[in-house]
Myo-inositol-1-phosphate synthase
Amino acid sequence: MVRVVILGQGYVGSVFAIGVERIKNGELGYYGIPLANELPIKVENIKIVGSYDVDTDKIGKNLYEVVKRYDGNKIPESLKNIVVRKGIHLKSLRNLPIRAEGLEDDRSLTEAIDKIVEEWKKMKADVIINVCTTEAFRPFNNKEELIKAIENDDRERLTATQAYTYAASLYAKDVGGAVFINAIPTLIANDNAFLELAKESNLIIFGDDGATGATPLTADVLAHLAQRNRYVRSIVQFNIGGNTDFLALTHKERNRSKEYTKSSIVKDILGYEVPHYIKPTGYLEPLGDRKFISMHIEYVSFNGALDELVINGRINDSPALAGLLVDLVRLGKIAIEREEWGTVYEVNAFYMKNPGPAEKGNIPRIIAYEKMRQWAGLKTKWL
Amino acid sequence: MVRVVILGQGYVGSVFAIGVERIKNGELGYYGIPLANELPIKVENIKIVGSYDVDTDKIGKNLYEVVKRYDGNKIPESLKNIVVRKGIHLKSLRNLPIRAEGLEDDRSLTEAIDKIVEEWKKMKADVIINVCTTEAFRPFNNKEELIKAIENDDRERLTATQAYTYAASLYAKDVGGAVFINAIPTLIANDNAFLELAKESNLIIFGDDGATGATPLTADVLAHLAQRNRYVRSIVQFNIGGNTDFLALTHKERNRSKEYTKSSIVKDILGYEVPHYIKPTGYLEPLGDRKFISMHIEYVSFNGALDELVINGRINDSPALAGLLVDLVRLGKIAIEREEWGTVYEVNAFYMKNPGPAEKGNIPRIIAYEKMRQWAGLKTKWL
Amino acid sequence: MVRVVILGQGYVGSVFAIGVERIKNGELGYYGIPLANELPIKVENIKIVGSYDVDTDKIGKNLYEVVKRYDGNKIPESLKNIVVRKGIHLKSLRNLPIRAEGLEDDRSLTEAIDKIVEEWKKMKADVIINVCTTEAFRPFNNKEELIKAIENDDRERLTATQAYTYAASLYAKDVGGAVFINAIPTLIANDNAFLELAKESNLIIFGDDGATGATPLTADVLAHLAQRNRYVRSIVQFNIGGNTDFLALTHKERNRSKEYTKSSIVKDILGYEVPHYIKPTGYLEPLGDRKFISMHIEYVSFNGALDELVINGRINDSPALAGLLVDLVRLGKIAIEREEWGTVYEVNAFYMKNPGPAEKGNIPRIIAYEKMRQWAGLKTKWL
Amino acid sequence: MVRVVILGQGYVGSVFAIGVERIKNGELGYYGIPLANELPIKVENIKIVGSYDVDTDKIGKNLYEVVKRYDGNKIPESLKNIVVRKGIHLKSLRNLPIRAEGLEDDRSLTEAIDKIVEEWKKMKADVIINVCTTEAFRPFNNKEELIKAIENDDRERLTATQAYTYAASLYAKDVGGAVFINAIPTLIANDNAFLELAKESNLIIFGDDGATGATPLTADVLAHLAQRNRYVRSIVQFNIGGNTDFLALTHKERNRSKEYTKSSIVKDILGYEVPHYIKPTGYLEPLGDRKFISMHIEYVSFNGALDELVINGRINDSPALAGLLVDLVRLGKIAIEREEWGTVYEVNAFYMKNPGPAEKGNIPRIIAYEKMRQWAGLKTKWL
Ligand SMILES: NC(=O)c1ccc[n+]([C@@H]2O[C@H](COP(=O)([O-])OP(=O)(O)OC[C@H]3O[C@@H](n4cnc5c(N)ncnc54)[C@H](O)[C@@H]3O)[C@@H](O)[C@H]2O)c1
Ligand SMILES: NC(=O)c1ccc[n+]([C@@H]2O[C@H](COP(=O)([O-])OP(=O)(O)OC[C@H]3O[C@@H](n4cnc5c(N)ncnc54)[C@H](O)[C@@H]3O)[C@@H](O)[C@H]2O)c1
Ligand SMILES: NC(=O)c1ccc[n+]([C@@H]2O[C@H](COP(=O)([O-])OP(=O)(O)OC[C@H]3O[C@@H](n4cnc5c(N)ncnc54)[C@H](O)[C@@H]3O)[C@@H](O)[C@H]2O)c1
Ligand SMILES: NC(=O)c1ccc[n+]([C@@H]2O[C@H](COP(=O)([O-])OP(=O)(O)OC[C@H]3O[C@@H](n4cnc5c(N)ncnc54)[C@H](O)[C@@H]3O)[C@@H](O)[C@H]2O)c1
Ligand SMILES: [Mg+2]
Ligand SMILES: [Mg+2]
Ligand SMILES: [Mg+2]
Ligand SMILES: [Mg+2]
C-alpha cells in the first residue's frame, strides 16, 4: 500500500485521482503509466488519503465534486470519501482570477506547517505529490537561510512549495521516512538546501518539474541528431494551451521558471549552445487541456546540407503527468524501503524535466529509461 | 588507409566521394558523420580506388565529371583520377529511362564476376560499398541454391547486388579479408546464404539498407512512446522526393523491398502490431534530393486520453547516407583487423534500417548508438 | 418541402440523414451548411423519403438502424420510418469485403430502372442524391451510345451512377422536373451525354464530386499564390483515412477517378501545369472518418526567393459533404422552380470538385461562393 | 517613369532596390509582383532616386554597399549612384543595438522636415516608400493636434513615420501631387488626421502595413471556412524570424502595433470574435529573413464534427513585401494621374494588413484582388 497526499487539486491532481480509482475499479488499463504494472507495488495498491488546495471554491468540497469539473466521464464514487483541505497559500495564486485562502492567513507560518504535519500523521501519508500552480521563486541553496526564512515568517521570500517541502522534512523525520514529489518547476531536488535537509530527515525528494509534452520529446529528437553528428542551428518550441496552468504561465515570472527547466536540455544533450526559443507561448481557452505544440529544428548534415524538422502535436497535458505520478509514488515507496534519503537521480533523469541534484544534467530519455529500470530492479528492455 | 570501391555512382555515391575529398582538402568539417573523427582510422585515411556503374552515360567518364551533376559547388580535382567502370547490370535499371549496359552483356556471369574480382585485386580494395538502384529481389537463404544460380547463369533469379556480394566473397577469400557494405534494401546481411558464404570467405557484410531519413527517427519516436507505455493506434509515414531513387521506387516491386525494411521497425520497437502506412509514397521531380516527409502518429495516454503527433521534414536524402558510409568504411576496416567474418549486429543496429542477421530486429537507435560505440572501442556518451 | 432520396446509405448519406433530422428536432445548429438558413427553402423543409443501397447488410433495415453505425450519439427516432431499399449494383462493390445484391441480379437493367422510377414516383421525390461508393467508369459523351448501352443490358460498360442518372431522367420527364445530385467522381455533369438527356427530360444535374477536404482548400491557397504572381514549383497533397470510401479508393481504377477530379484544379487556377502528387494516398482503419491530410507547396517569390507551405489537417470527411448536400437539395428545388434544365455551373463551381459542364473549369472557391449566392438570389457578402 | 524615394534602407528596402534593378537588367522575371507587367507603367519604368536611413553605419554609403549585406548574389552596379542620406530619427531605433543619428539631432523638427522636402524636390520624387523599423506610436485622428505637435517640436509625441508623412504632404502640395506608401504598422492611412491633410495637399497615402506572410493567408483561409459556415473556435498564429525587424518586435510596444494590424482580420472576415493568439512571437537569429510560421485553427463542421488545420510555412519575409511595393509605386503614380487625393481603399484592401481608411475593414484577399484590378483598369481574372 502507498498512501498518497495531493497538494494542488487541479487538473493533474484530478486526473491522477480519477485514473487511479478507475484502474482499481477495473475500468481502465495501464496506458500512459511507463512501468505499467511491472513493479512489485501494484497500481491497485495506491490509496489517496489526503488533498490540499487554496482555491476557496475547492476547500471543503469532496474529491468527487472537485474532479468532475475536469473529466466528462463517469467519476469513481470512492472519491467522495476525501475532503479537500486548506493548504498554505503564500501568493501562489496571485494575479490569477481565483479567490484563494491559506492556513497562514490567520496564523504564523510555523503554526501552519505544524498543522499540516499533524494532519499528515493522521493520514499516515507515505508520499506527498506537489502539483500546485507554477510559482515564481528564488532557490535557497543554503539550508540555514531557508530555516531562517521559515522562522522569520518571511512570506515574501518563501513559496508554498518551499514551505510544503519543509513540512515534509519535519514529517519524515517524525515518522521515519517519507517522499516529496515535486512535479512543478520550483527548484527543490535541484536546491541543495532541501537536499541537505532531506538527508538529515529521512526524506526522499523526486524532482523537479514532471517531464511531459514537448520537452522530453525534444530531448530524444536532439539526442537522435547528436548521435548522427548533425549540427543544430536553431530550435523553436511553441506551446499553447487552455488549462489554468497555461493561464498562470502568461505571468512573466512563472513563465521564466518554466522556460528555465525546459531549455536546459539543449546544452545538456547537444553539448553546445544553440539559439533557441523554448517556452510556454500563450494561453487560448478553447484549446483546453489538449495543448498545441509546434517545434522547428534546423540542422546541418553531411557535405553542408541543410535539413529541417517541424513537429506539431496535440497533446493532453494533464494525463501525461498523471501517468508519470502513478509510477513515481510507487518508486518513492521503494526508495523509502531502501532508505535512499536525499534524491534519486536515476528516477529524476527519466521523469523530470530538470532532474536533481543540481550538478547533474539531462540525458536522452531513451537511455534514462533503462537506467531507471535498473534502479527499480526491473530487467532493461534494450540494454 | 581504407581503400574503397563504390558500386553505383549515383547521388549517394557521388556525395560520398565529394564529401570525403573536401574533408581531405580541409574544406569541410565532420558534420553528418556520426563518429566524426573519433575513430583511430581517420576520415582523411579514406581513399576511393574504384567506381562502377551500368549507366552508359557514366561508364568511362571520370568521377569529377560524373559527380558534378549532383552538386553545384566546387568539386575536388582529385576525383579526376578515377574512371567509372562498367559493372554487372542484371536488370537493375529495367523500366527506368536510362540506357544501361553490363559486363554480362557479352560474357557469362561467372566471367563477369571474375573480371570484377581481378579489377578489385589491382585496386587493392578493402571495402566495397553498394549504393546501386533499389532492386526487386528474392532472398536465397540457402547457400547451395545461390551458388547454383551463379553457376547456371540464372539472370532472372539473381540481382546485381547478389552477384556483387558473391564477387566480394571470392575476392575476400583470395586476399584474406574484405568488407561489403550493402546500403540498399536487398536482403544480404539478412540472408543466411550470404552470411554463411561470408564466414567461410573472410568477408564482412554490413547491411541492409542505410538507416537515414524518417525510419530511424520513427524508431526513436516510437521508443519514446513505448517507454511511456502509450498505446500507438496508427502510424502514417509519407515520403516523396525528386531524385532517381524515388523515381525507381515508383515501380511496385522495388517499392515493396523498401516498404519491408521501413515498416519492420514498428513491431520490433513497440512489441505489438499497429496499423500503419509506411512506404515511399511518390516521385516529384522539383523536390530534388531534398525529400518531403510527413508522419502522423496517434496514441492513447493515461486515463484514455488521445494524443497526436505530426512530424514534417525536409531532408537531404543522399548526404544523410553518405555521412553514414564515412563511418561504415572505417568500421569495416576495424572489423577486418578483428577478423569478425560474417556480419556485426552492433554496427548494423545503428546504421541499417534492417539490421542483419535475420534473427535480430530493430532496437531504438539511441541505444544502438551506444552499443556501436562500445563495439568500436569508444567511450559511451550517456551509458 | 424538398423530398429527398438517398442513393448509397453509407457514411455521407447517414450523417446527412442524422444532421437534417437533428436540426428539425432543434438539437443542432446550422454549422457546416454554407448557406445556413438563408434560403427561402429552410433546412426544416427537407424530408428524406427514400434510401437505396446494395449492401445486403443494409437492405431491408430501417434508416435508424443503419445510420447508428456511423454516429455514437443519440439518433433521431424519425429515421425509423424509412426502409433501405435494394438499388442497382453493377459491380459497385466489386473487390470490397461487402456482400452485395442489385435489382438487376434477377431482372434486366431496363426492368430494374423502371422499378426504381416507379418507386420514386410513389415517394414523390424532388431530389436524388448520389453518394454511392466511388466507381471505376468510362464517360459516354454521346447520348446514343449511352441509350444503346442501357438497351443492350451492357453491364460491363455501365456503372450504377450512370444507370441511376438515366433513371432520374426518365423520372423527371415523367413527373415534369427533378434533380440528380452527383456527389461522387463519376463524370455526369461533365458528360455531355447526360447533360443532353437532362435538358430534354426536365432534369437538373449538379456535379461532379462534392468539393470537401483538401481540394477546395488547395484551390483557394493556389488562388492566393496566383494573385501574388508566385510561381508554384511543386504540389503534394496526401490524404489518408479509415472509412470505407478510403478503402474503396485503394483500388487503382477508383483511385484514378478521384485523382482526376482532385488534380484538375491545378491548371485551372494557376494557368500553368505544375508537377504534383495529388491523390487519395492510403487507407488506415483506426483513423476512421477523420482523415489526415498533408500538403506541401513550394513556390518562388520576388527576387527568386523560395518559400514553402506545409498544411496538415485532421478533417471529418463525411460531415463536410453532408453539410454541402443540405444546401444542394434546396438549391436543386430552386432550380426546378426556375426550370433550369441541364446543369447550373454557378452551383457546381462552389460545391463540386469537378464542376460541370465539361467545358468549364475550376475557379477560386472564394469567388465561386459569391457567384453562387447571386444565382441563389442572395446578397453577396464581399462583392 | 516613377521616381521613388526609400525611407529605411533595411532588408525590405534593399531587396526592393536589388529586384527592380535586376529586372531592369533582364536578370530576373516578375515572380512575386502581383500585377507582373500588366500595368501601363512598366516595372522597367521605376527609378530609385533617393534613400534615407538613420543607422550611422548606412548614412553616407552608396546603395550598392548597403544592399549587398542582404543578398549574397551579384548586386546591380547601377545602385552605386545613390547615396543613403540621413533621415529623421525620433527614437525609431531606441533600445536596438544600432547607433542612430537623425537630422533633428542638431536642428528643429520643422527645419529637418523642410530640409527633406527640399531634397525630394531636387530628386523630383513621385513616390515615397516608408519601410522604416516598426514603431511604437499613438495615432492623432485630429489634424490640428498633429500640426501642433510638429510646430511644438514635440519629439515624444511624434514618430518618424508621422513626421515623414507630414513632410510628404508639404512636398505634394508644393509639387502638385505625390504618393506616400506606408508599409509599416503605424496608423497613417487609418488616421483621419493624415487623410484630411492628404486631401488638402494633393497627397495620396497607401497603407497601413504591407500584407505579406501569414496574415493575408489567414484572411483567405478564414474566408474559406466562413463560406462553408464552419464555426471557428480558436486561432493560433506563431511567427518567428531572424531579421532585425523581428528583433525590433521583441520590444513590447512595437509588438503591440503589429499584433493590432495582424489580428483585426479575424472579426472582419468571420463576423464574430474568436479567441486567438496572433502576434510576432519571437526572434531567432539563425532563421534569418526566412521566418517560420505555425498556425492552428480548430472549427466545427456539420453535425458538430470538430476539424483541425495546422499550417506551417518557411517564408522569405522581405521579398514578399518588396514584390508588393513594385506594384504599389506604379499604382501610386496612376492615382496621381487620376488625382485621387487621400487614400484608395481598393488598393489598400489587397496590399495592406490594415487597409485604410479607418472605417473600412478587411475583406478576403481573393476578392480584394479582383476589385483592385478593376480599380487599376485591368480585366478581372475570375469575376
Ligand atoms: N503535463 C502537465 O500538466 C505538467 C507537466 C509538468 C509540470 N506540471 C506542473 O503541474 C502543476 C499543476 O498543473 P495543473 O495543470 O494541474 O494546474 P491547475 O492550475 O489545474 O492546478 C493547480 C492547482 O493547485 C492549486 N494550488 C495553487 N496553489 C496552491 C497551494 N499553495 N496549495 C495548494 N494548492 C494550490 C490551485 O488552486 C489548483 O487547484 C503546475 O505547476 C505545472 O507546472 C504540469
Ligand atoms: N538516404 C538515401 O539516399 C538512402 C538511404 C538508404 C538506402 N539508399 C539506397 O541507396 C541506393 C542509391 O541511392 P541514390 O540516391 O544514390 O540513387 P541513384 O539512382 O542516384 O544512384 C544509383 C546509381 O546506381 C547505378 N546502378 C544501378 N544499377 C547498377 C548496377 N547493377 N551496377 C552498378 N551501378 C548501378 C545507377 O546507374 C545510378 O548511377 C538506393 O538503392 C537507395 O535505396 C539510399
Ligand atoms: N467528404 C466526403 O466524404 C466525400 C467528398 C466527395 C465525394 N464523396 C463521395 O461520396 C461517396 C460516398 O462516400 P461515403 O464516405 O459515404 O462512402 P461509404 O462507403 O461509407 O458509403 C457508400 C455507400 O454506398 C453504397 N453503395 C455502393 N454501391 C451502391 C449502389 N450501386 N447502389 C446503392 N448503394 C451503393 C455502399 O454499400 C455504402 O453503403 C463516395 O463515392 C465518395 O467518393 C465523399
Ligand atoms: N514582409 C515584411 O518584411 C514586412 C511586411 C509588412 C511590414 N513590414 C515592415 O517593413 C518595415 C521594414 O522591415 P525590414 O525587414 O526592412 O526591417 P529592417 O530592420 O531590416 O530595416 C529597417 C530600416 O529602417 C531604418 N530606419 C529606422 N528608423 C528610421 C528612420 N526614422 N528613418 C530612416 N530609416 C530608419 C533602419 O536603420 C533599417 O535600416 C518594418 O516596419 C516592418 O514592420 C515588413
Ligand atoms: Mg539537475
Ligand atoms: Mg534483421
Ligand atoms: Mg468541368
Ligand atoms: Mg481600416
In short: Chain D has a mean pLDDT of 96. Chain D has two domains: 2-210+319-374, 214-315. The pocket of nicotinamide-adenine-dinucleotide (ligand 1) is lined by residues A 7-13, 52-55, 87-89, 92-93, 131-134, 160, 183-185, 209-210, 212-213, 243-245, 317-318, 320-321 (CB under 6 Å).
